[in-house]
């Protein structure tokens, strides 16, 4: 093998590749924010100009960015919230794995506004992916050229770039780091190397996307078994490192496991049958021509119809390019006379990822049978395809054509030109057939895609000449960068959740209560940046009892992503204001006053919504009886409390009032006055970890009206304080501390 690469050159090359991607947005003073998703949804469709890219990267703006904004707002106010009161009736923020609240990247950059955060976090993720891919190749003996080629191919490859604004990439960028750490541990089995592997394992588990965690850790486990060759010391140290890594991530894992147990996630994931998902047979063409069906920066997949894709289909699901030059060098690595075990392993890894994405039998049956993997989208195993190809490309960058048997050379020549010509011809025919339907801009874009592909074909063919290979990393980077720039649209900070008159009207109308959007009026999580408590919410996990309270059943993955109609009892959900559009106005509640019209239609409840109520009457029963009672027409939470967690004292009829005196994320203080004992009913979600004190004395928090909280209060004036102190988090922090101490001891003793 060739001489190892210089680390300094690798670091600079990886940084240059990352900077080349974010540089144009940085120079424009913009962030990698796909805010085009906002102008399509009310109320911003009335105030923002149309921008390309609507719908293709929408999850970042509709679901993910509001959670980070919530965390940042709490941090700037001097607190790190553990509970999120702004969606549904409240959810455990510490257990919200998609928000990745404990990942060092999110914590370390928490003080940054959205625009600089998007740029710096993207740079660091790309840098991590590139540097550790290069270090992994360096350990395998790749030359400087090969290590840089592999680093650029993976960091600017389709998976990393397309998922750059999602938590997927936060974990995916650590895949090469895990391989590198496993290799070091295999070479020198010892405590320091095990500590390094544990650190990367913990970071991967904190990344924020459980399916990608499974894919990354599964690939790393396969590589560990490949390296072990029956060596018990190596296997033992690797297993210990995995356990310590899980300990480092325990503050996120333990609360998440508790949350999953109280949610409807298992049923919802099972109903989606994700194990059977597969990508279109057109995927191989997209590997060669990444922008064949359009891009987020160009608009809503302007050519998608040519491939039978919907106008809002997910661009990033089929983004797995590495460029034609890395593919050529990857083929050289495999075609040499005696490819070593590392080449064969990475080739198998890449092929496995591609077959999984295409749903090749019997893989769907395998996913269905494996616990955990049955609820995971297998098409995202394109991650291991891009990584495997990048590593093979680095290993093949120094292969001399003389090392390849003549027969293999002929096969390589045909395997290069045949798919290239077929791809180009197929794309031209598809475009020609739709010529009458395409606008001029669309046709010009398709023509540019073909010209770029031709240039890449010629460049890749020239790279087979050993005298020209010095240019391989830079040309490969260029041909990866061009589609990457189109895959991540940028936008100025002024388009990031601007407040509108309708949002202000909603806030005024809701009071201490919640808001509800009908149809697509103010998507569920988008009230969070404005301090609006929404009866809906999209947490990708939802409390089962709250879902059953609203719909009478559980297991809907899209539960309360939107509301087609009013819930059966708005008062029970403490809904004080409703947002609607002209299209959804017919579902607006009768008798509610219209207080705003324009960017949104806003309706106010006839009576102020109350989250805190004094109730003297109570009944006990089973959970099923409580659910049926509170969902019955005419049920009034202000007159009767249903308790389903044990017996309760019977109080004489009494009158009283309750007022929220202080309202924070992790604590709520309520002042109660009554002429007799009774119950303080707080219409916020019941969840383990909420503790209460009445006039400073601990009190039991009861599960009331199937999904909410109640505390017994005496006659007279009393102050009730609720505080969220989750035990799994405390246990997780203790485990993380012990794991960190063990790693420090391993590193320094």
How is this structure best described in words?
There is one protein chain. The protein is α+β, with helices and mostly antiparallel strands. The protein has 2 domains: 7-30 and 92-310 and 320-487, no CATH class; 612-729, no CATH class. It is built from 25 helices and 15 strands. It has helices at 7-27, 58-76, 104-108, 114-139, 144-155, 158-162, 167-172, 175-187, 191-205, 210-228, 232-248, 250-261, 265-272, 283-288, 324-335, 341-358, 363-369, 382-396, 406-433, 440-462, 472-487, 501-510, 544-551, 623-631, 727-748, and strands spanning 514-517, 575-580, 593-596, 601-604, 612-615, 618-620, 641-643, 656-663, 667-674, 678-685, 690-694, 697-699, 702-704, 708-713, 716-724. The strands form 4 sheets. Strands 8-9-15-11-12 form a 5-stranded antiparallel sheet, with no helix packed on it. Strands 1-2-4-3 form a 4-stranded mixed sheet, covered by helices on one side. Strand 3 (593-596) and strand 4 form a beta hairpin. Helix 8 (175-187) packs parallel to helix 10, helix 12 (250-261) packs antiparallel against helix 25 and helix 15 packs across helix 18. The longest helix has 28 residues, at 406-433. It is globular. It starts with 6 loop residues before the first helix and ends with a helix. The relative contact order is 0.12. Residues 1-5 have low confidence and may be disordered.
């Amino acid at each position: 093998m060739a001489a190892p690469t210089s680390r300094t050159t690798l670091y600079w090359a990886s940084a240059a590749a990352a900077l080349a991607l974010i540089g144009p947005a940085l120079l424009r003073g913009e962030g990698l924010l796909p805010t085009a998703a906002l102008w399509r949804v009310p109320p911003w469709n009335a105030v923002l100009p149309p921008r390309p890219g609507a719908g293709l990267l929408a999850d970042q703006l509709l679901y993910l960015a509001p959670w980070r904004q919530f965390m940042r707002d709490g941090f700037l106010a001097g607190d790190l919230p553990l509970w999120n009161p702004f969606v549904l009736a409240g959810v455990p923020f510490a257990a919200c794995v998609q928000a990745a609240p404990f990942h060092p990247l999110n914590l370390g950059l928490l003080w940054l506004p959205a625009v600089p955060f998007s740029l710096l976090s993207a740079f660091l993720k790309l840098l991590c992916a590139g540097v550790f891919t290069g270090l992994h190749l360096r350990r395998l003996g790749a030359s400087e050229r090969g290590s840089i080629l592999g680093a650029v191919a993976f960091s600017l490859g389709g998976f990393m770039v397309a998922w750059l604004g999602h938590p997927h990439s936060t974990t995916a960028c650590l895949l090469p780091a895990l391989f590198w750490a496993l290799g070091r541990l295999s070479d020198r089995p010892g405590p320091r190397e095990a500590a390094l592997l544990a650190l990367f394992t913990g970071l991967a588990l904190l990344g924020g996307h459980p399916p990608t965690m499974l894919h990354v850790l599964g690939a790393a486990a396969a590589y560990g078994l490949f390296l072990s060759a029956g060596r018990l010391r190596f296997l033992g140290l690797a297993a210990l490192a995995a356990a310590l890594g899980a300990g480092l991530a325990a503050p996120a894992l333990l609360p998440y496991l508790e949350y999953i147990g109280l949610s409807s996630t298992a049923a919802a994931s099972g109903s989606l049958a994700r194990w059977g998902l597969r990508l279109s047979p057109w995927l191989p063409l997209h590997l060669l021509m990444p922008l064949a069906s359009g891009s987020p920066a160009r608009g809503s997949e302007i050519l998608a119809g040519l491939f039978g894709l919907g106008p809002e289909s997910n661009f990033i699901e089929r983004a797995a390019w590495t460029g034609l030059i890395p593919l050529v060098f990857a083929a050289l690595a495999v075609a040499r006379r005696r490819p070593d075990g590392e080449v064969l392993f990475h080739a198998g890894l890449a092929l496995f990822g591609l077959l999984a994405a295409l749903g090749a039998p019997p893989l769907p049956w395998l996913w269905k049978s494996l616990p955990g993997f049955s609820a995971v989208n297998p098409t995202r195993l394109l991650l291991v395809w891009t990584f495997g190809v990048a590593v093979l490309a680095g290993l093949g960058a120094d292969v001399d054509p003389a090392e390849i048997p003549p027969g293999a050379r002929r096969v390589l020549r045909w395997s290069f030109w045949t798919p290239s010509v077929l791809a180009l011809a197929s794309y031209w025919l598809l475009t020609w057939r739709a010529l009458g339907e395409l606008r001029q801009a669309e046709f010009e874009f398709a023509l540019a895609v073909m010209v770029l592909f031709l240039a890449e074909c010629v460049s890749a063919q020239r790279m087979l000449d050993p005298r020209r290979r010095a240019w391989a990393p830079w040309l490969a980077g260029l041909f990866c960068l061009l589609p990457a720039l189109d895959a991540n649209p940028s936008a100025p900070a002024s388009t990031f959740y601007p407040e509108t008159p309708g949002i202000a009207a909603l806030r005024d109308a809701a009071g201490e209560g919640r808001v509800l959007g009908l149809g697509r009026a103010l998507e569920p999580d988008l009230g969070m940046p404005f301090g609006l408590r929404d009866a809906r919410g999209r947490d990708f996990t939802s409390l089962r009892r709250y879902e059953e309270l609203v719909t009478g059943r559980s297991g809907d993955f899209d539960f309360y992503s939107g509301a087609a109609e009013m819930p059966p009892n708005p008062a029970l959900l403490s809904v004080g204001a409703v947002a609607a559009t002209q299209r959804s106005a017919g579902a607006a509640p009768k008798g509610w006053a219209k207080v705003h019209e324009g960017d949104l239609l806003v309706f106010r409840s006839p009576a102020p919504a109350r989250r805190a109520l004094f109730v003297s009457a109570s009944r006990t029963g089973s959970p099923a009886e409580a659910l049926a009672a509170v969902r019955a027409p005419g049920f009034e939470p202000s007159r009767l409390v249903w308790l389903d967690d044990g017996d309760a004292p019977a109080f004489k009829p009494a009158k009283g009032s309750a007022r929220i005196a202080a309202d924070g994320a992790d604590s709520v203080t309520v002042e109660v006055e009554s002429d007799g004992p009774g119950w303080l009913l707080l219409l916020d979600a019941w969840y383990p970890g909420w503790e209460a004190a009445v006039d400073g004395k601990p009190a039991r928090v009861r599960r009331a009206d199937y999904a909410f909280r109640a505390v017994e209060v005496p006659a007279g004036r009393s102050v009730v304080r609720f505080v969220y102190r989750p035990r799994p988090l405390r246990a997780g922090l203790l485990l993380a501390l012990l794991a960190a101490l063990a790693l420090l001891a391993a590193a320094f003793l």
